[in-house]
């Protein structure tokens, strides 16, 4: 770029001095003004970045999609991320097929029901999909699904877009389960069996909860090791 600027400056100066000569102070003044203006323009262009460079410098890296937990006081919401609020929690799904097929199944379910679902975002690389959902009103609810290929699980969230409406009577939870069943390749994490079931029963009273399902899924007794799979918000 410096070579181009030097060449331009040389050409400009040669053009300036090739103009039909004038006499006396008039010629000196004209040439001096021209040189001053030309140099000023060149140095200004050197200091100001080109639009291409500006675009490169301001390029924003898109964050990876993730599934957020429902707000603690949410009434019409269910998420696989609410592992400490059983009333807002639904266990992730597992699958044995490829991650791409699992994601294609979820997309197929949502696209085939365009009366209820209006897809708003699809990220095939991250295997993430988001859609608005009809309940009593159009676009009243929203669903999100994220397929995690390395862990072979699907995490999700179904919620009211604007809190404060009438109770959903379990519609968001039922919706998630309906998508899972229609996908035909998904199972609930842990298969509904919890770690407490191995201690002589008692699951109905104390084991069938978020941590119990996590422990059963990973074959652990203390629920350790799941932090890298499920995003959990700090209290």
Give a count of the beta strands, DSSP E runs of length 2 or more.
7
Query: What radius of gyration results from the CA coordinates?
Result: 32 Å
| Sheet with most strands | 7 strands, antiparallel
Order of helices and strands: HHHEEHEEEEHEHH
Low-confidence stretches: 194-201, 203-207, 219-235
Distance between the termini: 54 Å
Number of H/I helices? 7
- The portion of residues assigned to helices is 25-40%
Mean pLDDT over the full residue set: 74
The secondary-structure class comes to: alpha+beta
Shape: globular
Q: How big a fraction of the residues is strand?
A: 15-25%
Task: State the gist of this model.
With 235 residues, the chain is α+β, with helices and mostly antiparallel strands. 38% of the residues lie in helices and 15% in strands. β3 (117-123) and β4 (128-133) form a beta hairpin.
